[in-house]
Amino acid sequence: MPVPMPVHAYAAPAAGEPLVPTVIERREVGANDVLIEVKYAGICHSDIHTVRGDWGPQSYPLVPGHEIVGLVAEVGSGVTGHQVGDRVGVGCMVNSCGQCTNCRNGDQQYCAEGMVGTYGAVDRDGTITQGGYSTHVVVDADYVLSVPEGVDLAAAAPLLCAGITTYSPLRRWGAGPGKRVAIVGLGGLGHMAVKIAHALGAEVTVLSQSLKKQEDGLRLGADHYFATSDPATFEQLAGSFDLVLNTVSASIDVDAYLGLLAVDGTMVNVGAPGEPLSLNVFSLIGARRSYAGSMIGGIPETQEMLDFCAEHHLGAEIELIGADKINDAYERVLASDVRYRFVIDTATLG
Ligand SMILES: [Zn+2]
Ligand SMILES: [Zn+2]
């Protein structure tokens, strides 16, 4: 391989500008690195916010993409866990300090020094990371996951963000047999939450704005489906869930949702509204409820999630697109016009 290696990619040249084909350089494969031939890259809502500068200034050109699956093309001399030809994935982070308590506990996403995001972040060598809308990526082997047979490779891509983001809180707060779990929102995150919660054995209810996707929700594994635009929903379901997983980024009436929890129930946000939320603390203390948050998952748990999904043959519902459709796909994601995740076929990158 020429060093550094030029590879095809799609990048945003500046905030608010459409993505364009480009060539970027990947670093030399170090002793603990894996060179991945990217096969598929999912489009996450975060990609759009980041390239548009909604979450603060970025370094451009910026190649997004943190739902990456592909095949190992080369490994460094010190890599033992991955071999050429293996099916692998990379999610939202590609590095962390490895030394702090959180890293040592396998919670690299909460690294005390800050995890290194897969794109638009300063890596520990000082370079800016570039993501998966690209034909190849070089990643430290400790942040490369195995994608077992049992799940289609393209459908596995969204597991690396949407899958782990929902799997982690579902596991932590005990979704399983005998537990009543509500999933708020049936989008990229919500549809994976429904599949995973169902596979874990929980009784699953979807709370969506309307009944438009009811048929889908039930097909994906939900037992019940309610419209949140109907005020009767909140009366009818008061006190009926052990866990409410909110996947929606829009602001919500927190008290109304907390009222759906049984005694000792927990509501967990994985969606992040841009504005602060307010709540009446009586909504918590009146039934010993908790309100929590959760962000993706650590490397060991992400591997556990991939193994679980492969065992249960769970992948995302995807619409596979060519690179020339990325900008259209962004508009459609913003309009909630996708069922339920766009995945880029990286063979079309040039
Ligand atoms: Zn994401
Ligand atoms: Zn750390």
List keywords for this structure.
single chain; 350 residues; Quinone Oxidoreductase, Chain A, domain 1; Rossmann fold; 2 domains; seven-stranded mixed β-sheet; 17 strands; globular; binds zinc ion
Task: Tell me what you see in this structure.
The protein is an alpha/beta fold and 350 residues long. The protein folds into 2 domains: 5-159 and 317-348, Quinone Oxidoreductase, Chain A, domain 1; 162-293, 3-Layer(aba) Sandwich (Rossmann fold), CATH 3.40.50. Helix content is 24%, strand content 26%. The protein has 11 helices and 17 strands. The chain has helices at 45-51, 101-104, 153-156, 162-172, 188-200, 214-220, 231-236, 254-258, 282-285, 299-311, 326-334; strands at 5-11, 20-26, 33-42, 68-75, 87-90, 93-95, 116-117, 136-140, 145-146, 180-184, 203-208, 224-227, 241-246, 261-269, 290-293, 318-321, 341-345. The strands form 4 sheets. Strands 3, 4, 5, 8, 9, 16 and 17 form a 7-stranded mixed β-sheet that branches. The radius of gyration is 20 Å and the shape is globular. The mean pLDDT is 96. Residues 44, 46, 66, 92, 161 line the site of one zinc ion. One zinc ion binds at residues 96-97, 99-100, 102-103, 111-113.
Rg, Å, rounded: 20 Å
Shape designation? globular
- How many β-strands, per DSSP? 17
Helix content: 10-25%
Q: Determine the strand fraction and express it as a percent band.
A: 25-35%
CATH topology of the largest domain, what is it called?
Quinone Oxidoreductase, Chain A, domain 1
CATH class of the largest domain: Alpha Beta
CATH superfamily of the largest domain: Medium-chain alcohol dehydrogenases, catalytic domain
Distance between the termini: 18 Å
Tally of helical segments: 11
Q: Find the structural class using helix and strand composition.
A: alpha/beta
Largest sheet: 7 strands, mixed
Mean pLDDT equals: 96
Low-confidence stretches: none
For the record, the CATH architecture of the largest domain stands as Alpha-Beta Complex
Helix/strand order, N-terminal first:
EEEHEEEHEEEHHEHEHEHEHEHEHEHE
Number of domains: 2
Bound molecules: zinc ion
